[in-house]
Design goal:
Elements: E1 2-10, E2 13-21, E3 27-32, H1 42-52, E4 56-61, H2 66-75, H3 82-98, E5 107-112, H4 114-125, E6 130-136, E7 154-159, H5 163-173, E8 180-185, H6 197-213
Length: 216
């Protein structure tokens, strides 16, 4: 198991991430966190731990610098800046391609909330590197024009009680030109705080990634 704290250079600064890669690994899951969240998100960390049990490496990384996080905490100025977040995800994808331990691994982008839009933007920009995109309670609609350019298959996981976001996911799904699945977790709200619902997210993501990796 590779386990290290990494610093990814971007925009004259550095993004901090936790990289864990089992040996052997089948792919690398890059988590793009949502509005007001970070690599310490307990929900994403729980899902990441489950994905590592099926041979997937994980990188949980802060898409904002420490200064930007402080600004965002008080103003919310960055959390909906999808172009910025998308560029950051692209930078991390490129960094992974340059690292000895990860360059050969297919990349799965896992986005939550606004991070899902950033993941879709990055998938559109790096079609040769991104195997698939998984969205948990995401806002894929915020990817806007990038939705038409995504070439990787997409899994959209939404809580059954997250009515507004479910409608936005249905609308965004109709714009996708790639294979996709809309997986609704019954009884779950936006943050999947109900008992057992986050486990269902992890199971759905693991099964989806497994299916995408089989042809390779």
């Amino acid at each position: 198991m590779i386990s290290q704290l990494v610093r990814v250079p971007v925009d004259g600064a550095a993004l901090t991430g936790d990289l864990l890669v089992p040996t052997p690994a089948r792919a690398l899951v890059l988590f793009a966190h949502g509005s007001g969240s970070s690599r310490h998100s307990p929900r994403n960390r729980m899902v990441a731990a489950e994905l590592r049990t099926v041979g997937l490496g994980t990188l949980l990384i802060d898409l904002l610098t420490e200064q930007e996080e402080r600004e965002d905490a008080s103003t919310g100025v960055h959390r909906f800046d999808i172009p910025l977040l998308g560029r950051r995800v692209v930078a991390v994808v490129d960094w992974l391609a340059a690292q000895h331990d990860t360059r050969a691994l297919p990349v799965v982008l896992f986005g939550a909330s606004t991070g899902a839009a950033a993941a879709l933007v990055a998938a559109a920009e790096r079609p040769d590197r991104v195997l698939t995109v998984v969205s948990r309670g995401g806002r894929p609609d915020l990817a806007e024009a990038a939705l038409d350019r995504v070439r990787a298959p997409v899994l959209l996981v939404v809580g059954g009680r997250d009515v507004e976001v479910l409608a936005l996911n249905e609308e965004a799904a109709r714009r996708l030109r790639v294979p996709y699945s809309l997986h609704v977790v019954p009884g779950a709200t936006h943050l999947f705080e109900e008992p057992g619902t986050l486990e269902q997210v992890a199971e759905a993501a693991a099964a989806w990634c497994d299916d995408r990796l089989k042809p390779a």
